[in-house]
Amino acid sequence: MESNEISFENLPKAVAHLVSEIAIIKLLVEVKQPQQVPQKRIPIDITEACQIIGKAKPTVYTLVRKRLIPCYKNGKKLYFFEEELLEWISKGRKKTLQEIESEATADFKKNFRKTSAEFNLKSKL
Prior knowledge:
By secondary structure, this protein is mainly alpha-helical.
């Protein structure tokens, strides 16, 4: 419905049209997920990297020299990306005793079945 068609006589039609349009817009807004703005990968220097991982500069230089930490070098400067550092930290997670025990039990059960089946086969021959 165009704005030049609105008059006192067709005002109820115009209001009904606007109500339906608002309902459609409301539905679209409710359904739409919040837009995630892609973060720019901004490199950080060694000072910021030290703060993120909680290590001293000489320690970070040693980790870089041993190629244990993700980094980039341009000329004489080292650069890091915060996401990569956080991922590097999370990969170093130590398992709890309970996790180690459950994995060991699962491996033992799996291997026990294999060895007992092989033993039964050999004894039949």
